[in-house]
Amino acid sequence: MSRSRLFASLCGLVFLLNLARIIFAPLLDVIIAEFSIGEATAGLLVTLAWVGSAFPRLPTGWLLTKVPRHSVVIGSGAILAVAAGFAATATSVRHLMVGAFLMGVASGVYFVSANPFLSELYPDRVGHVIGIHGAASQIAAVIAAPLVVLTLLVDWRLSLWAIAVGAAVVTAYTGLAAARTELPRAGIEDRNFVAGALSEWRIIVTALAIVGIASFIWQGVFNFYELYMQSKGLSPRAAGLMLTIVFAAGIPAFYFGGDLADRLPRVPYLLGIVGTFAGTLLVLTTVNGLFGLIVMSGVIGFVIHALFPATDTFLLDTLPDSTRGSAYAVFSSMWMFTQALGSFALGIFIEDGYSYDAVFVGAALFLGATTLGLVVLERTGRLPS
To answer: What phi-psi label fits residue 381: left (phi over 0), alpha (psi between -120 and 50 degrees) or beta?
Structure first.
């Protein structure tokens, strides 16, 4: 029961931490008006939250070799509470940018420490708990825009204060639950960050080879998804609905995707998801009607979000206790930076005059070809499992 309560508190904390990364996107219009800034500066504000999420992952991996996992998790919640409160009091755009960056830092610290912690709390059900935890995180992506609309009835800063207060309360409860729980000792041998990561380089490279290109492509697809839907003739409101459907489909995808990751062979399952994503992206480029786009938005959202719990389960359940935290931190950092480049790459192609459909078809075919090559390697026993 005590572990269940601790797990529930972590689900609440991950919801707030993911909300902190997403909340600035639906706030951009009011922030532009409040601080009299342009779109480029506003875009930088959103980028800083994600850069902040990537920045601390390697240092956190080193910290996990010195400090217990649960202590770092609790520290991430404290950072979020302070950072969100700092951002809510912003009197200038630079002040707000610092707050956004620190809110992103809190999420980066959390994910690198919490995911190994969860896998050690429930070693027999890694995919299941990672899936539920991911679903809690994904709910934040779905409700971010409605939450902003609601808080704008009072003050746009209310959404940031809600995150700050919520983080303080949930972090305090997490600390209390951790103190009352018999915690796993699985990570006590993970004490050499560099050696631990280097010893697992084959697993890290394999995971990046399988999921890196897919997540790189997805980052570009979802950040330009509304504009892509508008290029197919949808209104801005209908295009926004399509993106909401994509995110909403991620909630059951995390849950069922994590469960399947426990039941199926890890590497073939990952390759199946990536290959299916390539196929659904290719089909999406051929669909134009509203009903078809609704269906395909749901399908592609489900498929791609199933990739994330499957990836974490593969890493966390494959890596031994003595290297899990170190190796996962290295993978997570490299994966995050790889994803971050996807939107920039897509933007370059679009500015050069290529259509969204042409770029997505090329990306889907390239992903399909690389996946086929990896399938051949897996079938001949050349990929570690």
So the answer is: left
